[in-house]
Amino acid sequence: MKGKFSITANGSPGIEVLSRITSLFMKNQVIIKKLDYVSSQKSNANYIVEVSSDEKKMERILNQINNIVEIYKVTLNCK
User: Fold this and answer.
1) CA quadruple 23, 62, 75, 72: dihedral positive or negative?
2) What pTM value is reported for the model?
3) Core-most of 5, 6, 42, 64, by most CB within 10 Å?
4) Helix (H, G, I), strand (E, B), or coil: what is residue 29?
5) CATH number at residue 54
6) 57 in Cβ contact with 30 (< 8 Å)
7) CA-based radius of gyration for the chain
8) What does the DSSP 8-state code read for residue 38?
9) What stretches of 1-79 show up as alpha helix (H) in DSSP?
10) What is the pLDDT along the chain (79 residues), one digit of tens a residue?
11) CA–CA distance, 3 with 55 (Å, rounded to integer)
C-alpha cells in the first residue's frame, strides 16, 4: 500500500553521508519529495527525507540506512 513517509536520520555531518542516503532512494526507484539537512553541531546532523512509496520499500531503505556507519539513529514516520 502506497503512503507518505518521513525518514529522520541522525549522524555525522557531511556531503558523503547525504549522497549515500539519497543514492539508496535512487537504487530503490523512490522519488524524494522533500529533503532537509540540519547540522546542529560539528559532530551531529539531522537528515529528513519525505517520500511517497510502499511500506516494503521503506522498510528495506530504513534497514539500508541503518547500515551506514556514520548514522547513529533512524526513525520512520507514516504521514
Assistant:
1) negative
2) 0.88
3) 5
4) coil
5) 3.30.70.260
6) yes
7) 12
8) E
9) 15-27, 55-66
10) 789 999 999 999 989 999 999 999 999 999 999 999 998 877 899 999 999 999 999 999 999 999 999 999 999 998 7
11) 7
Give the count of beta carbons closer than 10 Å to the beta carbon of residue 44: 13
How far is Cα of residue 24 from the mean position of the Cα atoms in its chain? Answer: 8
64: left (phi over 0), alpha (psi -120 to 50) or beta: alpha
C-alpha cell at 6: 518521513
Q: Which domain holds residue 14?
A: 2-78
- Of 15, 12, 10, 6, the C-alpha closest to 23 is 15
- Contacts of 23-29 spanning 24+ positions with Cβ under 8 A: 24/61, 24/64, 24/65, 25/49, 25/51, 25/61, 28/53, 28/57, 28/60, 28/61
C-alpha distances (whole Å) from 49 to each of 46, 70, 76 are: 10, 17, 10
Cell output for 30:
523512490
